[in-house]
Amino acid sequence: MCLGIPGQVVEFTDAARQMARIDVGGVRRVINVGLVAPDGLEPGDWVLIHVGFAISRIDQEEARRTVAFLQELGDAYERELEQLARSRVE
């Protein structure tokens, strides 16, 4: 199962390639933020992530509700976090 999961922007790592380090449940990975960067994106902002790309910007409350829902899914959410921990976008 592939889920869109909330992550918080920690820092921008490569402005030219529109890459940023995102924190998802304690897992930090570099992802592409090019789809949401034109709307303005700063460290601390929340985004919805799918397969290494930020696909939309969300507010903190929506992120909290989404994480709570995903945690209720149990194994599916845990597998998604494990896959994220193993992934690398370069």
3D structure, described in words:
The protein is of the alpha+beta class and 90 residues long. It has a single domain (5-86), classed as SH3 type barrels (Roll), CATH 2.30.30.140. It is 29% helix and 37% strand. It has 2 helices and 5 strands, in the order E-E-E-E-E-H-H. The protein is globular and about 35 Å long. It starts with a strand and ends with a helix. The relative contact order is 0.25.
Secondary structure layout:
Blueprint lengths: L4 E10 L4 E6 L2 E6 L13 E5 L2 E6 L1 H14 L1 H12 L4
Antiparallel strand pairs: 1-2, 1-4, 2-3, 4-5
At a glance:
The chain is of the alpha+beta class and 90 residues long. Helix content is 29%, strand content 37%.
